[in-house]
Description:
By secondary structure, the chain is mainly beta. The chain folds into 3 domains: 1-78 and 352-447, no CATH class; 95-159 and 161-208, no CATH class; 213-344, no CATH class. It has 3 helices and 34 strands. Strands 8, 9, 10, 11 and 12 form a 5-stranded antiparallel beta sheet that branches. Strands 17, 18, 19, 20 and 21 form a 5-stranded mixed beta sheet that branches. A hairpin with a 5-residue loop joins strand 18 (256-258) and strand 19. The longest helix is centred in the first third of the chain and has 15 residues, at 18-32.
Amino acid sequence: MTASKRRLALRVGFPSGLILLAVLGLACSLQASASPTPATEAPLRSAQTPSASAATATTVVYTRDGDILVWDDDTRVSRKIFDSGDVIRVELSDDGQLVAFLRRTLVRRSELDWYEQSSLWAVDRNGANPRELVSADSLRDLLGASETESSNIPEMAWIPGTHRLLYNGWTYLVMAEGESHAIPRGLYSVDADEGTQQVLVGAEGPQRFVVSPDGQQVALLSPMALAFVDADGSNLRRDVLTYAQVGVPGPLLPVGVWTEDSQAFVMTESLEEDPAAGIDFVISRVTADGSATDQLASVTRSHPGSVTFSPDGRFAAYIQYTDEVPPDIAGWFITPLGEGAGPLAIPRKLEPGYPSLHWSPDGRAFTGALAELCPGATQDSEICESPISRGVSAAIQWLDPTHLLLLTRDPSALLLVTLDPAGQMDATSEPIEVWPLEQSVGPQSFAAVEAAGG
């Protein structure tokens, strides 16, 4: 077993061949350019003309130096739409028309006494009508932050088919553990068109949320119970499913996904520390009306944060540790989900680390390095195709079965990747942005949508 596989946060996934040369070439050109015009405002074009099979109507937003840029595949040009130097996160509405973003400011009381705070904003995709939706003071009031606590929004999501945002918040001590030990609390909404705000669930927690595909319901996941609430804040159903956490250090939040018809939720639950290594848990399907709960699978020596689901609802993937002392990573494995959960609305974006093995929108299994698994594979070592094979993958966002965004590290580069039907990379893949080598860029720094039929 290699040393890299022993690392908990597996670092995999840098493009090879043509794409590696393109990234390094663009990085050098960006750093060497003496033009006073920002490089991100000039066309970033592929060395070859995109083929007719390339994705259409893809819009990408991302941050660079705290500003917001938009790229689309019609022009292959990145242009700056918001210039403030303090943006830390972007989210794009599903119609591609609005960009929601977080701005972070530092409030210094003295040389050794300061805290951070964030505000939520929106801007039209063309850069028009920038407006503050939730001020930093309003967020602090919602969370009951003390004078010494920092505040931020860890989760925010557009309600499908609307310009309404759902979000939660957390507080933390920036001079101590920072956000690594922060706990998400509450559930709030804001209309980006009208500016109206609503408290769906007060500042209780810890809990994370997942909005249903039809935009009508929200699942609330806490360490001890699953709840549902309608997206307008009505019909809160607490304790639809209760479960225990045994021997788990700190509050560990389950993960889950909705079925495509928004009638049920599939999730990890009943977390218990394994005597050998990791955590044992079960995967269950819970109907939204709470009338039925079906246990689909049980997993041992793992971590719930590693779980991903196949889009047809027949399989789940997870990390597994050995029972050696000290324990090691045995690999990522696939388990069947009983008779199946039904088609699932799986997330399109993945941050490789605990999760790695995952599925494309059409149901092909890939590792975090985008190596395609063989049909019927049961673990990540059963590889048939390896279109991307070296380096470090920071995030993957699937747009459709043959197009994805890949964020790399060392250097941080954002690429639009096109796979042919056999899973191989073709010549239309190109870098959208390359950041300076000293900058580390995370998955919250970009978002994308693709029009239907793209």
